Amino acid sequence: MGTTSSHRAEADSVHQVMTSFEFEFILHLMKETMQITDHLCQALQSKSKDILSAMHLVSSTKACIQQYRDEKWDVLLANVKSFCNKRNIDVPDMNARYVARRGQARHQQADFTIEHHYRVDIFCAAIDSQLQELNRRFSEDAVELLILGSALDPRVARASFRIDDICRLVNKFYLQDFTDHEKEQLEIELHHYEHNVVQHASFQGLSNISELCQWLVRTRKSTIYQLVFRVVVLLLTLPVSTAITERAFLAMKIVKTRLRNKIEDEFLTDSLMLYIEREIATTFSTDSIIDGFRDMKKRKVPF
């Protein structure tokens, strides 16, 4: 009976919180901000690594969030009030004095209204934290690095090959990777690259920098345009330090659970590889795996 009563009391408490005006307000705010940032999140997680489009989305996402903060407070508040009125949820008087929770009262001003609490402490604070996180992860230098680097993307290069952007990329971000003489040679090499590579028939079918790198090696043009190829290789290291790493750590939390906390490094690595590249793993048949295991080494007993 005690257990049933405690469960009932806990359920009543949860229901009371979930049917409060503050809970509904936060849910609506989360929904609106997540809608604004969804396109950027999808682009950053995409395996296509369309850097230029993603960086343009960073700028537009910042602008949209700032615009939402400046102009949409009244709209959000009206939507939450309408939602609560339809579901018989009490709507507080926004002009009434806000009574802080225990431990917060000493920081409260005398004219601190409920509307001020929702607008400043929740609405503005949540949006400002979003903007701060975007600015921290995507500083002006980081965005410039990625935009300049996109000049070597085959899709961008076919439309307009920006030699000045590539030279600026090297001069600003890769000072230690090129000597002064190599920087001068790079500009000359890029002019030859524009005529002999960008206009090559096979180049038209490339869709990203990764494919470009493989194509340059396969056609041995990487030995002819060594400095350009060095820039391409440097650009390929950028995704390694961003989305792919975060995806790997997320996978580790899923694979290495509390019940499997003693898993060895080699087995963990193999498990993570299968999970991260599960689209490729599904193409292997069970028979091919068995045959591969059988051929790994000679055994005393036939497998």
* Shape by Cα distribution: flat
Instruction: Give the number of DSSP strands.
Output: 0
Number of domains: 3
What does the main sheet amount to?
A: none
Radius of gyration: 28 Å
Uncertain segments? none
Helix-strand pattern: HHHHHHHHHHHHHHHH
Mean pLDDT over all positions: 84
The secondary-structure class comes to mainly alpha
Tally of contiguous helical segments: 16
Helix content: 55-70%
First and last CA, distance: 60 Å
Strand percentage: under 5%
Report what the structure shows.
The protein is mainly α. The chain contains 16 helices and no strands. The chain has 3 domains: 2-138, no CATH class; 142-240, no CATH class; 242-294, no CATH class. The protein has helices spanning 2-18, 21-45, 51-71, 73-86, 114-137, 140-149, 154-159, 163-173, 180-198, 209-218, 221-224, 226-236, 243-255, 265-276, 278-281, 286-294. The protein is flat and about 75 Å long.
Summarize the structure.
By secondary structure, the chain is mainly alpha-helical. The chain contains 16 helices and no strands.
SSE diagram, text form:
Blueprint: H1 2-18, H2 21-45, H3 51-71, H4 73-86, H5 114-137, H6 140-149, H7 154-159, H8 163-173, H9 180-198, H10 209-218, H11 221-224, H12 226-236, H13 243-255, H14 265-276, H15 278-281, H16 286-294
Helix pairs in contact: 2-3, 2-4, 2-5, 3-5, 3-6, 8-9, 10-12, 13-14
